[in-house]
């Protein structure tokens, strides 16, 4: 019997889908056959993404979501399940990533990072879980980072928030896996996107990053999408509570 990697006609949510990794993951999921509910703080910012998915023969619908608003999370997730009759896959991608030296971190900066990267992820998981547990099935994939297990300078708040994502992923897997809901995380290295291009196109910075990646190249959105689609598919039904690193070997050292 062959493993089943199909996500055809599965209903998937992608948060933080208006740019970067989220934008690419939404397109990849749609290309693989999923019906994608794309979410960001402004629905207008998602129009181009929905158009691109539709023109490529896929299905997508835009929803406004600020992951700092717990009530809105609950309402929007329930609306997706109502609109499509079920919810099969959730990719919690929305996040902040600005660095700051530890001695300069303010309470406002810390709270903003945690509100989006950790609190928002948990309450999206909770909203998804409530729907999926009633169905008896579902896949939740949290976008963590390689720096959830190794540190980087000027990343104290970001690293802490992503480490928290790993831990909540483990605990939710312990609570929900026996009821049909698998929950995992992916941990990318530096991924080339329009938002990271300026830094990664700087020779000194790029050389410093490449020196830490044994695979010898910067990551792409397609690299992350491969892991996400696997974790969203039936092929990964026995995989839960884990962090899948997409880091070219960075953390193997």
From TrEMBL:
It comes from the Bacteria. GO terms for biological process: bile acid metabolic process. Its EC number is 1.1.1.47. Pfam families: adh_short_C2. GO terms for molecular function: glucose 1-dehydrogenase [NAD(P)+] activity. InterPro entries: NAD(P)-bd_dom_sf (IPR036291), Sc_DH/Rdtase_CS (IPR020904), SDR_fam (IPR002347). Signal peptide: none annotated. Belongs to the short-chain dehydrogenases/reductases (SDR) family. This is Glucose 1-dehydrogenase. It comes from Paenibacillus dendrobii.
């Amino acid at each position: 019997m062959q493993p089943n990697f199909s996500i055809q006609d599965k209903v998937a949510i992608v948060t933080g889908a208006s740019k970067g990794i989220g934008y690419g993951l939404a397109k990849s999921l749609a290309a693989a056959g999923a019906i994608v509910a794309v979410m960001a703080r402004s629905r207008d910012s998602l129009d181009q993404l929905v158009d691109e998915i539709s023109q490529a023969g896929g299905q997508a619908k835009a929803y406004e979501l600020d992951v700092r608003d717990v009530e809105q999370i609950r309402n929007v997730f329930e609306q997706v399940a109502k609109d499509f009759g079920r919810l099969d896959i959730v990719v919690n991608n929305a996040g902040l990533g600005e660095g700051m030296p530890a001695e300069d971190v303010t309470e406002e900066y810390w709270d903003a990072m945690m509100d989006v990267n950790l609190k928002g992820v948990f309450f999206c998981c909770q909203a998804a879980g409530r729907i999926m547990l009633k169905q008896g099935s579902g896949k939740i994939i949290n976008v963590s980072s390689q720096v959830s297990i190794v540190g980087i300078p000027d990343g104290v708040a970001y690293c802490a928030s992503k480490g928290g994502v790993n831990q909540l992923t483990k605990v939710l897997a312990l609570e929900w896996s026996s009821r049909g809901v698998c929950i995992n995380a992916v941990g990318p290295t530096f991924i080339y996107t329009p938002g990271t291009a300026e830094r990664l196109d700087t020779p000194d910075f790029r050389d410093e990053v490449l020196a830490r990646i044994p695979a010898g190249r910067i990551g792409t959105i397609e690299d992350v999408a491969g892991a996400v689609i696997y974790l969203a598919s039936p092929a990964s039904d026995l995989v839960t509570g884990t962090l899948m690193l997409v880091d070219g070997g960075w953390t193997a050292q």
